[in-house]
Amino acid sequence: MKIKLNWGFGVVVAFVAFISFIMYFIVNMTTNKKYDYDLVTEDYYKEELAYQKEINKEKVTNMLGMQVLAEKTTDGLKIQFPPLLNPKEISGTMFLYRPSDKQQDFEIPISLSDSHLLIPNNRLKDGRWNIQIEWSYNGQEFLTKKQLVF
């Protein structure tokens, strides 16, 4: 039996080759751990609904000049709150997020005796950190977000 090579046969071969390539690509991407990426957070949609509250807190922080400063020192990461405030009345939480490894993420409650908070070097590995500081003073809520390369 002789196979007749014409344009119809070429189209069928092209379709089969294309579908085979796509199937290989899909199977490779879904089974290979190298391409396994997690979402930033598990409850992404739930957090999206609360995002407007974060925007409002950031606006208040900027309007009142209540920005929190973060700087790398020899002892660690120094978080400086506005110096005119009574540090004992500042409360809140600070979340440190590592984009490259969620196992290193951690949260610290804010409890101050001085106008700054120090996170020691051994808690922070070298690389990029996203810092989110949610704090309140006299019932007013503030939010500061920073990106830092440590």
**Number of E strands:** 7
Distance between the termini: 71 Å
Radius of gyration: 26 Å
**What oligomeric state do these chains adopt?**
single chain
CATH fold title of the largest domain: Immunoglobulin-like
Return the string of H and E elements: HHHEEEEEEE
* Portion in strands: 25-35%
Residue runs with pLDDT of under 50 for 5 or more positions:
none
The coarse overall form would be: elongated
In CATH terms, the superfamily of the largest domain is Immunoglobulins
Number of helical regions = 3
Mean pLDDT: 87
CATH architecture of the largest domain: Sandwich
Structural class estimated from helices and strands: alpha+beta
The level-1 CATH class of the largest domain: Mainly Beta
Major sheet strand order: 4-3-6-7
Instruction: Give the helix proportion (percent range).
Output: 25-40%
Number of domains: 2
Largest sheet: 4 strands, antiparallel
